[in-house]
Amino acid sequence: MSEAEIEGLQAALRAEHSAIWGYGIVGSSISPETRSVVRDIDAAHRARRDELADLIRLRGSDPDPAEANYELPFPVGDPAGALQLAALLEAGVAQGYAFAVSQATTQRAKGFALAALTDAALRQTSWRQLSGVAPVTPEFPGL
User: How far is it between the farthest Cα atoms of the chain?
Assistant: First the structure.
C-alpha cells in the first residue's frame, strides 16, 4: 500500500465531498421534474464517499474530512445554472478518480477508481446534454 495510492484515494474523496455539497445547490435550483434524479445521484456519491473512506482506513490512514463550505465557480439561481454546475461537479469527480487511477498500485483501488471515473464521465455527459453544451462528451474525462 503506497502513499501515492492513498493520496489518489484522498483526492477522489475530496472530489466526492465537493460533489455532495454541490448537489445540494443543484437540487435547490433544478426543475422539480429533475429533482429525483439529483437525489439518486447524490445518494450514489454518498455511497462512493463511504467506500472511499473505508478503502483509506484499510490502508491505515484517516480519510480527509469534508470542508464546511465550498466556493461555487459561478452563481447558481436557475435550472440552467444548476445543470451547468452538475456537469462541472461530475468533471471534478472524474478528475479526482483519474488521479486515483494513476496512483493506484492495487487492483482493488484501480478497479474502484476506474468504475467511478466511468460513472462520473457518463453523468457529466448527461448533464451536458440536458444543458445543451456541445460537444456533449468531453474529450478526455477527468483530464
Answer: 45
Locate 120 and state its grid cell. Answer: 462520473
Class of domain 3-131: mainly alpha
Q: Give CA–CA dist 80/77, Å, rounded.
A: 8
pTM of this structure: 0.93
As given in the structure block, the three cell numbers for residue 95 are: 478528475
Number of other CB atoms surrounding residue 34 within 10 Å? 17
The single-letter code of the amino acid at 92 is G
Q: Indicate the domain borders of the chain.
A: 3-131
Closest among 37, 20, 9 to 90, alpha carbons compared? 20
Q: Label residue 132 left, alpha or beta by phi (over 0 means left) and psi (-120 to 50 means alpha).
A: left
Q: What pLDDT tens digit does each residue of the chain (143 aa) get?
A: 689 999 999 999 999 999 999 999 999 999 888 999 999 999 999 999 999 999 999 999 999 999 999 999 999 999 999 999 999 999 999 999 999 999 999 999 999 999 999 999 999 999 999 888 777 776 666 65
| Block residue for cell numbers 448527461 | 126
